[in-house]
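Thread: DUF1648 domain-containing protein, structure

OP (GT): Posting the sequence first so everyone is looking at the same thing. Length is 109 residues per the record. Can we get the structure tokens written out before standup tomorrow? I want them in the notebook alongside the other entries.
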Amino acid sequence: MKLVGSRKFTWGICSIGILLAIVSVFFLPQIIPVHFANGIADGFGNKMEVFLFPILLFIITLLTGKEKIKYFLTHSKIFLTDVQYNLMIDGVLGIILIAEIYVIYASFV
């Protein structure tokens, strides 16, 4: 079975986000940037806000595994195969993971 396009890959992305937040919370400063405009931080928050990304990753991963949601998303107007559906979800999770990495990176720069 191929890893890319499977639910294992989706859960892997989710796991990476959770582990990244857990490890980074020990090294982050108390105040971290949480909002950016033109690449410049203009909103700040507590370092615990870094856990909002893994929570979002986990919720999306759980919800997109439900058969009713999967059926709705794959059979509405555009018919998607299981692999295409998983790749679409993995893309969304990847964007959220990149945003998490950017917030962590911007906290140290």
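GT: Both are above now. Quick notes for whoever picks this up: Residues 68 and 74 are 10 Å apart (CA to CA). Helices lie at 7-24, 52-64, 67-75, 82-108.
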